[in-house]
Design a protein that fits this description.
Largest sheet: 6 strands, antiparallel
Number of strands: 6
Strand order of the largest sheet: 1-2-3-4-5-6
Order of helices and strands: EEEEEEHHHHH
Helix content: 25-40%
Structural class: alpha+beta
Oligomer: single chain
Shape: globular
Length: 165
């Protein structure tokens, strides 16, 4: 339980009686790691975990879980940086691969985060944010919500970034 940063948790009401709570994780996990729990009328609908660590190649490894079952495990190809290094980066700085440059640039502005952190958001949330609909938008918001906890900024603009063509 020591990895859970309960005091830094954020609660979002997404309408229709659905609320989600995002709890950041620390310790052995990168500052972008979190657990998100969706509730509807006090009933748990689902849990999502994003666990970001350093892999044996020295890159960020993103492991995603849905209701405790592993759904993806991705070597981002991004060289691992400590929490302190990421927080020290200037907004808009860091890695911006050409295929994602526009999306990463949008996220750096929308969330006020570095390019490295924006690239991690893309790596973590692209699957659920890639084709936004009224059904998938709240799930995308929940994914980004774990990162919005870090920046303290709303997630609406970040969700809109994934709609850019």
């Amino acid at each position: 339980m020591s990895a859970f940063a309960f005091a830094e948790s954020k609660v979002y009401d997404i309408g229709g009686g659905v609320t989600f709570v995002t709890v950041p994780l620390h310790g052995d996990y990168s500052l972008t790691s979190n657990v998100t729990v969706f509730f509807q009328n006090d009933t748990v609908l689902q849990t999502n975990e994003s666990l970001v660590t350093k892999n044996f190649l020295g890159n960020f490894q993103v492991n995603k879980y849905l209701n405790g079952v592993s759904t993806t495990s991705t070597d981002t190809g991004i060289a691992y940086k400590t929490d302190e290094q990421m927080l020290a980066e200037k907004t808009g700085s860091g890695i911006q691969p050409m295929g994602m440059k526009k999306l990463v640039a949008c996220l750096t502005v929308a969330l006020g985060v570095s390019g490295t952190l924006a690239t991690l958001i893309v790596a973590s949330c692209a699957t659920v944010c890639g084709a936004l609909t009224p059904v998938t938008a709240p799930v995308c918001a929940a994914c980004i919500g774990g990162f919005a906890v870090i920046s303290g900024v709303g997630i609406t603009g970040a969700v809109a970034c994934f709609n850019m063509k």
